[in-house]
Design brief:
The protein has 331 residues and is of the alpha/beta class. 34% of the residues lie in helices and 19% in strands. Strands 1, 2, 3, 4, 7, 8 and 9 form a 7-stranded mixed sheet that branches. It has a two-stranded parallel sheet with strand order 5-6.
Length: 331
């Protein structure tokens, strides 16, 4: 993909993230990480007690990524006999784990050409394991009531005349644009500057906080414009309308400082450690074959975020209800 993450993570955060703590990702469900803490053993390794081995997965800080892991983890454990550890890590923090042996697989990669070059092409410690079936859509969204009340607001060229609607104490004399987790893939600061918009990015800090903001803006009819994406379970609960930015064309976002176009459609893929791929193991076969839809992911995300299920419970329920789908992934 053409976009890149903001370089906001310090080395200290990276080190902390790689200590595979038992705390869960900060997704909307607030659920615990799907598995046990783990150390830096080589991947995958044969374990004692008849286990098929250990597989180390990574969970990005959004509930859709947690949903991927919920299903793949439980299939690895219950159908193939593996021990699975799952580390909640920001994307850029996770990739070095292919080099150190901390990570075996990222199940939802939103693309990072620079990291792909470093860890796939140059170091040769990771490989592309194919698409996971989910199409990622990133963009600027407003609550449906705003699009109804102000029909031309959905065209980004008209946003400046509505900037005053979005002013907050944090944005001052400019309209507030609600960013999400600052480690997410985002071009919003550059877009606002390059499109000459009188807005200021204010980061919510997490997916959960952004969801709450859109829910409140819908229920209370308060103006809000911000960064959001699909797949995400919220789209099945409330109606958000995507703002039309200048159309994406190949290369329009090549320079992150000069971006003045919409985000592209992202066909999400899986990245695995080369050692796992070369092993020919049943774990690699399952991960390579894993492919589902936006609707599948949103359903499991809803189980976790809104129906009080743990990640294991959500994974088990989806597996029980969808044997025809997952049986095609099995070795």
């Amino acid at each position: 993909m053409q976009r890149s993450r903001l370089a906001r993570l310090t080395a200290g955060v990276a080190i902390l993230g790689l200590v595979l703590s038992a705390c869960g990702p900060t997704g909307t469900g607030g659920s615990a990480a799907p598995s046990t803490a783990g150390g830096a053993s080589a991947a995958p390794s044969t374990a004692a007690g008849g286990s098929a081995g250990t597989v180390k997965l990574e969970i990005n800080p959004w509930v859709g990524a947690e949903a991927n892991v919920a299903v793949v983890k439980r299939l690895l454990e219950t159908k193939l006999g593996y021990t699975v550890t799952a580390a909640p890590l920001a994307e850029e923090v996770a990739w070095p784990g292919f080099d150190t042996g901390e990570i075996d697989a990222i199940l939802e990669n939103w693309g990072h050409p620079d990291l792909e070059k470093t860890y796939i092409t140059d170091k040769g410690v990771a490989v592309d394991a194919g698409l996971n079936g989910v199409n990622g859509i990133i963009g600027w969204y407003i609550p449906e009531w705003m699009a109804t009340q102000y029909p031309d607001i959905v065209d980004s060229t008209n946003l400046n005349k509505y900037a005053d609607l979005f002013k907050t104490s944090e944005s001052g004399d400019q309209g507030q644009f609600l960013g999400s987790d600052p480690t997410f893939v985002t071009n919003d600061e550059a877009l606002i500057k390059n499109l000459g918009l009188n807005f200021k990015v204010v980061y919510s800090g997490s997916e959960a906080a952004t969801i709450t903001a859109f829910q409140q803006a819908t229920e209370q009819k308060t103006p809000l414009i911000g960064y959001f994406y699909d797949p995400q379970w919220l789209h099945s609960k409330i109606k958000l309308v995507k703002v039309n930015l200048p159309a994406w064309t190949e290369g329009c976002d090549a320079d992150p400082n000069k971006v003045a176009c919409d985000y592209p459609l992202y066909k999400l893929n899986k990245i695995v450690a080369k050692k796992l791929a070369d092993s020919g193991s049943t774990a690699y076969t399952l991960i390579k074959n894993f492919s589902w839809t936006n609707a599948d992911q949103n359903l499991v995300s809803d189980y976790i975020a809104n129906q009080g299920m743990t990640t294991d419970e959500a994974g088990d329920k989806w597996i029980a209800d969808n044997e025809a789908k997952w049986s095609a992934w099995m070795p």
